[in-house]
Write a sequence for this structure.
């Protein structure tokens, strides 16, 4: 086997192994805990619908960087770093949540207006204004609890 061919094979093997390991790690060990949301079939049967008030999730949150200022959010509105908003991957847009910083006990109410975060191991991104009120602005990331107060009207997708 030539040196170039050996390098190509090694690269393919490494990429495949890395992809498999990453997929397994994210499926097996999530840094979040979330309440069980029943399936749509369960909701049709009269049980509590998914994302009912009281739904909660714990994990790591971060805040949006400056590069997102004024960019459109999933709701269509431009991102405003001074607004009390956040991004969440699945909560309906327009939902109102309470976010509590588990390091210092501070909490804020935020409106979900975007999708994200896209950083592995994070459950939400908050605006800079929210990060400051939560006391996490300097650190950038913290452990938090998100509690749904009111589900939004928008299904989110």
């Amino acid at each position: 086997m030539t040196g170039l061919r050996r390098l190509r094979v090694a690269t393919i093997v490494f990429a495949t192994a890395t992809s498999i390991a990453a997929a397994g790690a994210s499926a097996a060990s999530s840094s979040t805990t979330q309440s069980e949301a029943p399936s749509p079939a369960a909701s049709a049967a009269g049980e509590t619908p998914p994302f009912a008030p009281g739904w909660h999730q714990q994990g790591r949150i971060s805040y949006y960087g400056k590069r997102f200022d004024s960019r459109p959010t999933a709701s269509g509105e431009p991102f405003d770093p001074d607004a009390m908003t956040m991004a969440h991957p699945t909560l309906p847009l327009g939902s109102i949540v309470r976010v509590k910083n588990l390091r210092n006990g501070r909490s804020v109410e935020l409106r979900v207006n975007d999708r994200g975060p896209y950083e592995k191991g994070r459950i939400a991104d908050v605006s800079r204004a929210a990060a400051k009120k939560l006391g996490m602005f300097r650190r950038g990331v913290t452990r938090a609890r998100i509690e749904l107060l009111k589900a939004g009207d928008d299904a989110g997708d």
